[in-house]
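Saturday, quiet lab. Running sequence design on the structure tokens for the scaffold JK sent over.
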């Protein structure tokens, strides 16, 4: 059976990273569950919940809190971002998956927002702006948003470098474009987004 990931990726597309939202999204539901359990235990110890009625009230409160936690957990686990060598895909949905995507080569701007708590725990929102009809796509409470932004920018540069290499095939030699492509290629290699062999091959094509 074909997995959802296999259905998203095209045959020649490679998954670079799968980014999940930060565990802080589970904080509120986890706190509610914990407080409910502690309150029920305190009432039981204080003999304020007695008999079958008390048992039903306490058990019902814990069960409702647990259901709320499970629903929240499932939503948390089914919201993530896929970063490939061609696209940024935001996936949401529990039963029916919903995907919003922006091609790497059409990204014009990436904005990160991080509050005080986000700076302490290293999470925040990231919004990606596209030059095409895709508009702006984002995801909140993602782990290490600024590091993710840097990786997306590096992939965007790699895409531009690949296009520059393709454009040089059979075309006139443009020295300024070649220098710019070489600089992008060096940044990709320094960021460990391409191997040494790929760096040497692409550099040889650019130098020609």
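Result came back. Writing it out in full:
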């Amino acid at each position: 059976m074909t997995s959802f990931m296999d259905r998203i990726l095209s045959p020649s597309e490679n998954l670079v990273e799968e980014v999940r939202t930060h565990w802080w999204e589970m904080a509120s539901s986890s706190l509610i569950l914990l407080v409910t359990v502690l309150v029920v235990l305190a009432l039981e110890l204080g003999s304020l919940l007695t008999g079958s009625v008390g048992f039903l009230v306490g058990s019902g409160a814990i069960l409702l809190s647990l259901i709320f936690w499970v629903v929240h957990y499932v939503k948390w686990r089914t919201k993530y971002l896929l970063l490939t060598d061609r696209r940024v895909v935001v996936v949401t949905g529990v039963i029916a998956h919903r995907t919003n995507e922006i091609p790497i080569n059409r990204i014009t701007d990436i904005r990160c927002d991080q509050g005080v708590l986000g700076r302490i725990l290293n999470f925040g929102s990231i919004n990606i702006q596209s030059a095409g009809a895709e508009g702006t796509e984002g995801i909140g409470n993602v782990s290490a948003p600024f590091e993710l932004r840097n990786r997306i920018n590096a992939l965007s540069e790699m895409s531009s470098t690949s296009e520059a290499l393709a454009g040089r095939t059979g075309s006139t030699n443009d020295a300024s474009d070649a220098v710019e492509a070489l600089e992008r290629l060096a940044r990709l290699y320094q960021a460990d987004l391409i191997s040494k062999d790929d760096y040497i091959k692409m550099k040889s094509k650019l130098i020609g």
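Notes for JK: Strands lie at 15-20, 80-84, 87-92, 98-103, 107-113, 123-130, 136-143. The chain has two domains: 4-21+79-207, 24-77. Ask whether to fix the surface positions before the next round.
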